[in-house]
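Support request, please re-run this one:
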Amino acid sequence: MITAARSVSSEETSARTALKLGPKSIAERLRNLVLETSPTMPAIERYTGVLYDPLDAPAADASTRAWWDRHVIVQSAMFGPIGAGDLIPAYRLSHDSRLPGVRLASHWPAPAGAALAARAPGLVLDLRSEGYRSLGPVPDAVPLRVVSVGGDGRRKALNHWNKTAKGRLVSLLARTGAAVSSMAELTAWAAAHGVVVEPVGDGWDLVAESLEPVSV
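Re-run finished. Output below.
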């Protein structure tokens, strides 16, 4: 994966197409050229954006970090399933990037799925987007659909802002030291902290408004 990313990132034209980079982000291709010598930091701090901002990882205390290290796995397009505390360099690669000779959707599922299957037994909440979920399938995982509930009671699935709710959920789980091993225990924990997680049809909904703001 590193070799393919380095190859496609060595020239602006190929990087722009393969990595979907614009004029303002084209310089990010250079990260892939120095992956093996770049400084590293814990994955939970490396990633940024609306999913990770609610975690406020740099300010997290030792117990919160320990919870993340035990429970949180991130699906990386470059490195596969990685722990929250795993040290990684900066890189540019997404689940839909197109690399020469390597198709991510074919390369990752078998090894990533095997690695995830070897995890400790217990409840697995799958908060990944559909694209990243396909890179490492977990048959017994429970995906959460993030919804917004209007004044009339109607539910609307959120798109971009569902990431914020997921980040707030993981933040609260860690900061309360949650110990849950089933959906029954998760819903009990959620109720105790004012979070709405409930079964709807054959799936589970997380109500975004119940996580605004997060308080412990």
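The beta strands are 41-42, 73-76, 80-83, 87-88, 125-126, 142-149, 155-157, 197-200, 203-207. The chain has nine helices and nine strands.
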